[in-house]
Every structure is written in C-alpha cells, then in structure tokens.
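Chapter summary example.
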Amino acid sequence: MNPLDLFQNFLNPPVLFFFLGLLAISVKSNLEIPQPLPKFFSLYLLFAIGIKGGAELTKSGFDGYVLAVLGLAMAMSAIVPIYAFFILKKKYGVHNAAALAATYGSVSAVTFITAVAFLQSNQIEFGGHMVAAMALMESPAIIAAVVLHKMYYKEDDNQPQNSIGHTIKDAFTEGSIVLILGSLVIGFVCGEKGYESVKPFTGDIFKGVLCLFLLDMGLVAARRLKELKKTGFLSLVFAILFPLFNAGTAITIAKFVGMSHGDALM
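The structure predicted for these 266 residues follows.
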C-alpha cells in the first residue's frame, strides 16, 4: 500500500469543502447555506444512495454470500448505536447520546466514496452489493437511536409513555427511513436500466451536492466548536478511538466469515 494514498484521502473534494466551512467561520466570514437547502441536500443524498444501492443489488443478486454480507452490515449498524448510547448517556444526556449513537452506527457517503477510491487505486475489487449495504445500513442505526431515545427520555412523567411497538412504528415511518428504503426498493425493481434513466440526477451531480452538504456541515460544526470545552477531552478521545474499535470489530467478523478483502474494507 502506498502511504501517499492515506494523504490523498484528505485531498478528496468533499472533505476539503468540510474544512472550508471550518475555515470560513474561523475567519468570521458571512458564508452560509440558506435554508431549506441543507434539508434538500440530505434528502437528495438519501435518495441517490438508496436508488443506486437497489440497482447494484439487482446486478449482484441474492446468493448466500451477498445475504450474509448484507445481514452482517445491518447487524453492525443496529448494534453499534446500542452500546454507543449507553457509553455516552451518562456523560452527554439522552438527547446527545442518541444523536451520537445514530452518527456512529450510520455510514458516511464521504467515507464510502473515499474507500472506493482507495480500493480502485490499489486495484482491489469489491462487490457491487456493498452499495446496497451502505444504503441498508442507514436505517437500522437511526431506528435504534430513535427507539433508545424514546425509551429513556421522559418529557413529562404524567404523560403516558408510548409502547415499544409504537416507538418502533414511529421510527420506521420517519421521513429519512421511508425515503432511503423506498428508494432502495425502487432501484431494485427498476434495475440498471431504470437507474440509467435517472443517473444524470442521482449519479453525475452526486459529488457536487455532497460537497455543498459537507460545506454546510463544516459551517455548523465550526459554530459549535466552543461546546467542546463543556464536554472536555473525552469527546476527542472517544471520536478517535470508538471508530477504530468498530472498524477492528468489523474486520475481525469479515475475516471470520470469509469476506473478500475489498468487501471487508468497505
């Protein structure tokens, strides 16, 4: 592996736009993404990821290996938020712990794209079904975090609490879940031919929208950097070590079940 490949990851345009957002706030620029564009960006990314994943799943099919990979990916996405939530709840409270748990259990399109570029530069193949795995991994993490939040947050002790079944139903009908799962099904039903008809919108401009989305994330993150002082050094340590632990766990599982090198890294 070329060590320069690791450095090249930071030269990915979406990553650099995130740092541009941080820089803009640090120099007190009035740069901002007007509402409701950030909401549109997030909906677009969910839609594009979902329909692409469904189309790729059509090509790869549903053999035992593919089903095992998709099942393990969804399991990791659901399990990671659970232990993340309980680790973080005492320090950060139920609201923040649930939000962070969903973040660590979910996947990043930037990370996924960077991993694709890394594998391609090293001529390592990976299955097209991994795009579907990325799409499927969004919903379990969000659902797990929503359920945990509703289970442990009591706004008013005098008000009746929702049952677990009702909470899960609410989680499944949440807008982002409906969009990404619906897009995944539509992509699967329409197949590669159907995906090609919308590719100019879902594929060709994907990275451009992702850059703007991360620019906005950089602006938001920079405005809230002062809040790190309230949480202390633990936040930085956790942000570095927790993903490494999860990645190590995933690699171990992938080796145990005999995944290919490319699929294991993804």
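To summarize the output: The chain has a mean pLDDT of 83.
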